[in-house]
Predict the 3D structure of the following.
Amino acid sequence: MLDRKKYILASNWKANFTLEEAINWFEIVSRLNYPDLRIIAAIPYPYIHYFATRYNNIDVFSQNISHVLGGAYTGEVTISMLKSVGFRGSIVGHSERRHLFNESNQIINKKVLILQENSTEIILCIGETLEERKEGKTERVLYDQIISALNGFSRFELLTVAYEPVWAIGTGIPISPHDLTEAERFIRKIFEDKFGVKNIILLYGGSVDKEFAKVIRNQTTLDGALIGSASWKPHNFEEIIRIFVEH
Ligand code: PGA
């Protein structure tokens, strides 16, 4: 096929996996070598060094990063620690961080700027709650999340955006193809109008499984997916990968 797109499939492990399970996952997934595919594994902090230094065809990301640079902040994991163990970038603003750990748009902006300052990649998650969608506020929320997270940001080559409607995460109910197409158009337009960025790298996340992978692949112009539970069993993840690379 001519002009084939390079898809990105990012596996978000969340707070799962023992080291042994993690090794098994990397052993299986790293054997899948497709030139048109970038695989990202967003993994728990303790495993980053082990995998970042052993597997070079899977890009190892953290799922979060501290908004402080260091000092008396018990429990924080900072940019300099993560860089020193070889991570490639971080997810920022995942809805579980926003809602369960009260991360504000301001804190998310700090994290984004720290990553920019360190020339490190960012997967910025945005998405509306069910209540916001029902009240017709989806576009307002997405707009605010993007504009506030990217205050002071200019290095768009480091940025991937993941649109993840909160109500679709972990529920088994992805967005409808129609609503996804609308959201994609809206998000791309913000980047064009506000930042002059055409073709921002844009993923969808929220109950992506094999079936929904086909929707993303065939009914949208998205660049790939951020996948939680359907990516945890390496063979399930492999099936999703094949949908993107073998069509
Ligand atoms: P899910 O999670 O695929 O299990 O819905 C996606 C995410 O949280 O990034």
